[in-house]
Every structure is written in structure tokens, then in C-alpha cells.
Amino acid sequence: MNVGRRVDYAVRALSFLAGQPAGKIVSRADIEKCQDIPSFYLSKIMKDLVAGGLVQSHIGSKGGFSLAKLPTSISIKDVYETVERPLVLMDCLERGADYCSYCSVCTQKSIWEEAQKVLAEFLGRISINDIADRQGLKGRLVGSLQKAG
Amino acid sequence: MNVGRRVDYAVRALSFLAGQPAGKIVSRADIEKCQDIPSFYLSKIMKDLVAGGLVQSHIGSKGGFSLAKLPTSISIKDVYETVERPLVLMDCLERGADYCSYCSVCTQKSIWEEAQKVLAEFLGRISINDIADRQGLKGRLVGSLQKAG
DNA sequence: GACAAAGAAGACCTAGAGAGTCTATATTGT
DNA sequence: ACAATATAGACTCTCTAGGTCTTCTTTGTC
Ligand code: SF4
Ligand code: SF4
Fold first, then answer.
1. Is the pLDDT of residue A42 over 70?
2. What is the pLDDT of residue A104?
3. What is the 3-state secondary structure (H, E, C) of chain B?
């Protein structure tokens, strides 16, 4: 019932991209440096974000990543589901009787279904832009500090 | 970001106890049988529920468990936090800079804090009684079926 | 008092997930 | 041609979740 590093890093990477000048392409290594993400770890995450259509990749020299959508139209729920899994609180809600033999007489299932709906609705309303906006200078500042060091 | 078996079993066990006649004491093995919970697994969960003051244990022959509170005053959030951990969506919210060096310039933290609040508020409003009520007959039926089999 | 039936406590095992690191390959701008 | 870059995936390590079982202690009942 908690969110792991993949999502954390993904949100930070996307926020960072959202804070760049339009059209700017940033390399994996740069994002990692600026956002204090372990080296190379981002490669796997970015792959998912590209596959999910949230960012655009540019292979080759001077390549890198840029957002593929408006930051206002990328929700935290999108990010979560893209880099991790469908937003599901209890596995039976996704896998049914596969996961639980008690399914047919269960009465708590609907509780989790509703809780999940509440959460999904909330996270669906927050966008990367909501995070990047407030980050703005801060994010870039950290970047230059690290580059300087 | 999903709920595991411990919570599932705990909720079922508590609901089952709530559905018993007042004062009835049920053994671990019986709960396991009636609720289709793996043998012995409940012992560890019940320990936590006892320690958390949600159920009362009765050692010795003819011993077992019974609720220590009204089923209306046990929330799903209580159960979760008793058998698993504090309801926290992002670890930094609990462990601070211990967990994340980026904490000081982070802007997504507050998002998770709010999401967590929304979820906690929802789960805090659902009680074991809400689940047990609807279970009633069903729960006991499964029990007798399994005993017969 | 003896005995059986419970919980308490905790050791033990296994599979898989999460996090992180690195390399080999394909692609592309200069 | 070369350097820089994404892509793909192998690899390791540690921790957790889930499950099983054993030993000890307590207690009701005969
Ligand atoms: S008992 Fe109910 S809530 Fe639990 S896994 Fe089965 S169907 Fe889902
Ligand atoms: S970056 Fe922000 S949200 Fe992520 S762990 Fe650090 S403080 Fe928490």
C-alpha cells in the first residue's frame, strides 16, 4: 500500500521535462543528475514512459527525451499505471477467482473497489503540470548546482 | 500500492467474529476453517490484533478469540494499521530525509500526503460492522459447508 | 492432580518483487 | 568515421510476503 521508487522517479523526470523550454531534449544522464536519480536506473523507467506514449525519445547523438503530451494532460494516475501497474488496491479486483477462492461470498471486496475509485479519482485530477509549476526554478537550480559540483 | 493477505485475512476474521453470537469464543482453527484461511497463518495475525486491542484472546482449553470492541468502532483503517503498518503512501512521509535526499526541494510529496489523507478518511469511515452485517448468514454457511465436507 | 485443548512466541523456508548496476547493440547528428 | 545516445536486457542483492511448523505456557475439565 505504498508507492515505490519507480513512480517517484518517473514523476520527477516528467516534472523536470515539463519545466524545460519547449522543444528541449534532455538526455537520460542529465535527468538523473539533475533529479538525483541513481545512474542508469532511469533507462528502464523511460522505456515504459515511451511505450506508454507519455514521452518521446530521440535516439542518436544529441538525443534524449521530451514530453509527448502537454504536462496538463498527464495525470499522476497515468504515470503510476504506466510505470508500475493498474491502480488496484486488492488483487482480486484485477484477477478475480484466480486470486481468491473466497471471492463468491466476499463482502469486503466492494469496499476496496470503492476506496480504489476514490484514490484513482483523486490522482487522476492531479497533473504533472501541478507539480512542475511549483517546481520550476527549484528543479533547475538543483540541476545547475549538481553540474557545478 | 495494494493490500496484501494479512489485511484481507484480518478483515475476514474480524467480520466473522462480529457475526458470532455475543460472548462466543472461537478458536483459531475454526476461524481458519470457516474463512478459508491457510492453517496456522492466522496465529501471527491474531497476535497483532490482540496486541492492538481489537480482539481479546482466551488462553487454555476451550479458549479462542472474541472481539474486544464493538464492531462498529473498528475501522478498516484500524485493521490495516494494526496488522500491517501506518497508512502511508510514500515512504518519505514517514521517514523523511532518512528515505529521500531530494526531500527539501520536492514538490510531489504533498500530493501523496493529500492522497493518503483522502484514502485514510475513506477507510476510517468503513467499519467491520459494515462488512459483517452483509456477511451474516453467508459467512456461517460457508463454515458449515466446510465442516460438513 | 492429570490431561487435553487452546494461545503465545518465534524459527524456518521459499518465491518473487524492488532497487540498482552494467553491457552489448542499434541509431543518428556532426 | 566517430562520438553520443537510446534500447534491450542480463545480472545481482536484499527485503518482504506468504506460508508452515514446533515448542512453551496457560487453563478448563474430569
Ligand atoms: S476475500 Fe474478498 S477482498 Fe479478499 S481477496 Fe477474496 S474477494 Fe478479494
Ligand atoms: S522526491 Fe519527494 S515524494 Fe519522492 S521520496 Fe523524495 S520527498 Fe518523497
1. yes
2. 84
3. CCECHHHHHHHHHHHHHHCCCCCCCECHHHHHHHHCCCCCHHHHHHHHHHHCCCEEEECCCCCEEEECCCHHHCEHHHHHHHHCCCCCCECHHHHHHHCCCCHHHCCCHHHHHHHHHHHHHHHHHCEHHHHHHHHHHHHHHHHHHHHHC
Q: Could you tell me the sign of the dihedral formed by the alpha carbons of A136, A9, A23, A64, in that order?
A: positive
Question: What is the overall mean pLDDT for chain B?
Answer: 89
Written as nine digits, the cell of A124 is 487522476
In the DSSP assignment, the letter for residue A67 is E
Q: Return the beta strands (E) in A21-98 as ranges.
A: 55-58, 64-67
Contact criterion met (CB < 8 Å) for B108 and A80: no
With the most atoms of ligand 1 within 8 angstroms of its CB, the residue from A92, A107, A111, A116 to mutate is: A92
> Distance (Å, rounded) from C-alpha B128 to C-alpha B133?
8
CATH code for residues B5-88+127-141: 1.10.10.10
A133 pLDDT band, cuts 50/70/90, is low
The predicted pLDDT at position A145 comes to 40
Chain Cα centroid distance, residue B124? 12
pTM, two decimal places: 0.89
B3 strand-pairing partners: A90
Half-sphere exposure of A78 (CA within 13 A, CB side): 21
Mean pLDDT of B57-70: 95
CB contact under 8 A, B12 and A102: yes
A134 compared with B24, residue with greater pLDDT: B24
Question: How many angstroms does the Cα of residue A40 sit away from the middle of ligand 2?
Answer: 19
Residue B100, φ and ψ in degrees, nearest 5: -145, 120
